[in-house]
Amino acid sequence: MIFVDSHAHLDDEAFDEDRDQVIADILSGGNYFFNIASDLKTSYSSYELAKKYDHVYAVVGVHPHEAKDYTAETREALKELLKKDKVMAIGEIGLDYHYDFSPRDVQRKVFIDQIDLAREMDVPIVIHTREAMEETYEILEKYAQDMKVLIHCYTGSIEMARKFLKLGYKLALGGALTFKNAKNTVDVAREVDLKDLLIETDSPYMTPVPFRGKRNDPRKVVLVAEKLAEIKGISTEEVLEATKKNAFEFFGVEND
């Protein structure tokens, strides 16, 4: 059973002691993951991982937390990275009104600028949204209506999910699907067609049950697949095969 984890951060310091070993174990099973950046530094480290390992792909961009540090030079550096082999998309970008580490007006400006860059470079975008779902939707509807968009770690309502799906977007489900209080996410998993879903870990964060509180890694995406299969009444193999196909199609990876 080959899996594709559509969202991980294996360049995170949580993996400094055993990164090569963890990645070797993931790849030994023929599995894949997409390493997602949060700023310029992690855009470079994500690219380095993709360059070093087969079956690893990079997504580069500036997270809303780091929007305050985004400059014209940042945009140019991202543009150059997007020309590299195995750099597949811009992300994770969006709005985060939970922490407000960057001013909201700056977050919005940087979000829109990176959507514009993705359009210029003809690549998909991976969205982070926290406590800003409506405004995220409004910006995407206005600026990214005809683009390939993936809403990472989707935990919103089924009603909002339908609005995103109507625009042709995809939703990624992660460890939250296994949590006790995950009613919204379970509703989405049940009602949204499998063709519109990807699975992810957000490693080293969002570890699924029964490993909550421990470091997450892409191998645990299988637990998300198992829960999704249980909710839909289908086999885990069917979920893994479909979400692999969906991820490859979304990011434009040749199925090897």
UniProtKB/TrEMBL annotation:
**Tagged with keyword Metal-binding:** yes
Q: Where does a divalent metal cation 2 bind?
A: H128, H152
| Keywords assigned by UniProt, alphabetized | Hydrolase, Metal-binding
One GO MF term on file is:
DNA nuclease activity
| Binding-site residues, a divalent metal cation 1 | H7, H9, E92, D202
Q: Which GO terms describe its cellular component?
A: cytosol
Record-linked Pfam families? TatD_DNase
* InterPro entries with a match to the protein in the record: DNase_TatD-rel_CS, Metal_Hydrolase, TatD-like, TatD/YcfH-like
Q: Tell me the protein's name.
A: TatD family hydrolase
